[in-house]
# Entry
Amino acid sequence: MDKYCNYIIVGQGIAGTVLGQTLLDQNKSVLIIDDLSLSNASRIAAGLYNPIVFKRLVKSWMIDDLLPVMNKFYTDAEQLLNYKFYFERKIVKPFAEAHERALWQKKVNEEVGKYLSNDIHYDFLKDIIYNPLGVSEVLSGGNLKIEIFLDLFREYFKRENILLEEKINYNELMVNENNVVYKNISADKVIFCEGFKTIDNPYFSWLPFKLTKGEVITIKIPNAIIPDQFVINKGVFILPLGNGMYKAGATYEWNDLSEHPTEKGKEELMDKLNKVIKLPFEIIDHQAGIRPTVIDRRPLLGIHPKHKSLAVFNGLGTKGVMLAPYFAKHFADYLDKKNVLNKEVDINRFIK
Ligand SMILES: Cc1cc2nc3c(=O)[nH]c(=O)nc-3n(C[C@H](O)[C@H](O)[C@H](O)COP(=O)(O)OP(=O)(O)OC[C@H]3O[C@@H](n4cnc5c(N)ncnc54)[C@H](O)[C@@H]3O)c2cc1C
# Structure
């Protein structure tokens, strides 16, 4: 055998990248296998993180635990890779109805209020944004420039000689009781981080995904600038990319799971944007991807019920940026026998 490592990780989306780096931080050896052409969900995502669920104006699941781990992971990664890709931004909420504004004013006095601004602005970007009922802001939100983050980590993993750029061939995986052998590499475990492609994985295709396609567009608004410190969110998000360009999205589609952008998706986004932006805009780009969403909307972590040398880290759904750092640490500690898995994310919840 030519090579040995503690873990082979399959997939270098946000899940595999964050888990890989977390394991390296814990002095484990890893090899990452990734074929970029199989899924672009992480690469097209806007990378937003938002501590609030707008529909009910409540805190996002586990947010008080997720935020500190996320902040530390991405700022440490910026130092490691010597690049700024993690930004705090104010998520601006223009009110669509008077009762939404009233609910906001009530919630600022509750526990969730630590993530909500007290102020309501009636003249926010009034030449660009429809804003008859005022806007307020979510605090402690922001975004990860996720494609840059993944590219820089890919270069880093290559330099460290721990990246194999290919599609894993499941037939060449020799699964033993206490280890796995793939080609000339042996490892204690393989951890699959294949995003929605896990539906083709012979060991984990039984996991109950309820996949969601999403489409985003890149637009240009000539002669107007929404400053970089804001993200606008009113049924559709508008994220400044710089140079007068914005990413806008996203759609949610459960029936058509092709990875291609559609006319229907584009029209839906344009309709929503026309209700928010007063000025004409041009569409520069249009992309689609498949989110690895799960029937109970919780991540999927665990070891295969029969093959103890196979594991999965997946199901990050619509919130890969927020969930990955906390649950990568949680999973790495579990693999090191330092904790037990949170039952809400353990794949055992689906085993009768
Ligand atoms: C339109 C859209 C907008 C989104 N916006 C946001 C957002 O603003 N904020 C947020 O947090 N999340 C967002 N998401 C969700 C986010 O994209 C997902 O949570 C995240 O991408 C899941 O990451 P992953 O690493 O599990 O999967 P993926 O990103 O799918 O990565 C899997 C990787 O594994 C590779 N791979 C798969 N199978 C194999 C194999 N057999 N062999 C080798 N390589 C393999 C793939 O090519 C890919 O590189 C959005 C998603 C979409 C579609």
